[in-house]
Amino acid sequence: MRFQLQPPASKRPVSSHTSRRVGGSTAGTYRPAIFLDRDGVINRLIYHKDVGIIDSPFTVRQFEIFPRVARAIRLFNSLRIPVIVVSNQPGIAKGHFNAATLHSFDRKMHSVLSSAGAHLDAVYYCLHHPQAVLPELRKRCGCRKPGIGMLQRAVGEFAVSLPDSFMIGDGITDIEAGSRAGCKTVFIGNWKCECCKFIRPPGLRPTFMASDLWEAAQLVVGKLRREVRKSWLETTTHVPPG
Ligand SMILES: [Mg+2]
Ligand SMILES: [Zn+2]
Q1: Any residues with CB less than 8 A from the CB of 132 and at least 6 apart, and which?
Q2: For 217-233, what is the mean pLDDT?
Q3: Which residues are catalytically annotated?
Q4: Rg, the chain, Cα only
Q5: Contact (CB, 8 A) for 95 and 51
Q6: Strand partners of residue 19
Q7: What is the pLDDT of residues 5-45, one digit of tens each?
Q8: Distance 25 CA to ligand 1 centre (A)
Q9: d(CA 73, CA 62)
Q10: Are 147 and 10 spatial neighbours (Cβ–Cβ below 8 Å)?
Q11: How many Cβ atoms sit within 10 Å of the Cβ of residue 155?
């Protein structure tokens, strides 16, 4: 078996914009990771009546974590699979909230998860936006999904094998970013025909569809287990004689 199905050595609370190695991985080690979009996967989207849009929460009060999220993340933690949030957060760039608010979202997210025995291994945000009102965040970057900058960052920091990893999100850009990076993908929500029209390249579909993160986690872990079994069978049947 190339990845360990064993409990984590310790709980690892992680602050935002940082990451850490887990379980002493080495380069070349088979290491699937779980990439999670944040809004609509971990926490609820909010209808902002004043501006008439459905968007990320703008205040800590609006930041509400879905049921069964901690349970899903705990399952990945128990298998020692790094769980990495990769999220476009242009809210600061657009002037919806400030950096302190984003840190408060993180504190709330980490504290809710940790009180349920779950932890995130890293949180990566793209803060940029091409039409940002803040000039320092106005740019076309490689990290904004469907760009794959944040997924590539994990390759270096966690020795992640992208083809063995999963990108889980509720947006077209999540499925596009995951696919471009060579990952498998899970779409959270109802895959409507309207969405299909916009996804690039045309005809691209997620590996799985799920109603929430817990359902996604079960599908992903089932697939990883089947692949571990397959790779174990391949190694045992191809042992050279003598
Ligand atoms: Mg989302
Ligand atoms: Zn960016």
Answers
A1: 90, 93, 94, 138, 139
A2: 90
A3: 37, 39
A4: 18
A5: no
A6: 122
A7: 433 333 333 333 333 333 444 444 568 999 999 999 999 99
A8: 29
A9: 21
A10: no
A11: 17
Scored b (16 or more CB within 10 A) or e, 107-120 reads: ebbbebbbeeebbb
- Digit-coded pLDDT (tens) for 194-216: 777 788 888 888 999 999 999 99
Backbone angles phi, psi at 122, to 5 degrees: -160, 155
C-alpha of residue 17 to centroid of ligand 1, in Å = 18
**pLDDT tens across 72-105, in order?**
999 999 999 999 999 999 999 999 999 999 999 9
Ligand with minimal distance to 171 CA: 1
Res 221 pLDDT > 70: yes
Residue 218: partners with Cβ closer than 8 Å, 6 or more residues away: 75
**CB-based burial, 132-141: b 16+ in 10 Å, e otherwise:** beeeebeeee
Give the least confident one: 1-15, 168-182, 223-237: 1-15
Query: Ligand 2 centre from 134 Cα, in Å?
Result: 14
Domains and CATH numbers, the chain: 34-237 (3.40.50.1000)
Ligand number nearest CA of 126 is 2
